[in-house]
Amino acid sequence: MTWERSAPSAANPLAWSLPLFPIAGIHFRVHFTFIVYALVVVLRGSYGPVEESSVHGASTVGMAVGALFLLVFLREAVRALVVRASGGSAEDVVLWPLGSLQGIDPAPGWLAALLSAAVGTAVSAVAFAAMGITLGTLTGDWIGAGLPNPISASWLSNPHAWWIDALWIAHWTGVQLALLALLPMLPLDGGRVMEAFILRRRGEYDTPRIAAAATLATASTAGLVAIVRDLGTLLTVAISCAGFAAFVLWRLRAGDSVAAARPSWMAQHDESDERESRELRAEREAAEQERQTRAAEDRAVDLILEKIAREGADRLSAAERATLARATDRRRGGSQR
Q: I want to staple 196 with a disulfide (CB 3.0 to 4.6 A). Which of 63, 114, 282, 330 is the partner?
């Protein structure tokens, strides 16, 4: 579920990004956090202390960053195509080091949201199998090469051909990406799965609020564990997810204020007045179909207004814009009569 407009603006840090390229009509952007992360990793790997458990050296670190970008891009490109094919929308996808921050909006319903969340894990599973089998076959080391330790790169300390090292780094990076993405925090895949099941029970309105609050609680726990166990990567992920959730909650509260100020003619129709006189019953029954049509239209307009409050008018689909235009024309016509 996407949350914000993709156009870069000072008021929307989720969209602080640079354009990349379009594929199949889907525009991809790279978030500033990806750029900062890449610079930090390269500098640390090139000039920081040499540790057996981490990658070091400019070329090796460069391969690791490149592999991360390719894997994230592959996961999110497939996700965007699947979501669009299943009735959702994918327009401006913003990438960060663990997936996408916005731009992929599944079709309504918890199953569509669950499908979107599961795509990334499925892509990682296929990549893991392909690279693991290839490395195990080429090296004969099915444990160290085919099933790498996600917290140690000590396998690289033994000499191998450069392309074997490059393939292993991509495999190792993919394992780390897949495991971190399973954490139940937004905007990670695990958080999206949590969000889908909340959507099944609580509906569209409550889901983002509950999911964001749950993310804050989970991020606090994960951050505490990371501090105690000296896990720098986990701490960084926890802080990032907490920041995402806090921003979402702030935007939703602002959106609630906007939605509460909507024009009165867009409110839900009340139940028919049972005290109407018997003389008007026939006319009321004839107008029942029209009332139901208007009520359904009002419900659709309310959902669209909530989306405008959360994401901005430029995130509306063509169908949503058409629905809002029809509702406006109907009310204007009714007021003229």
A: 114
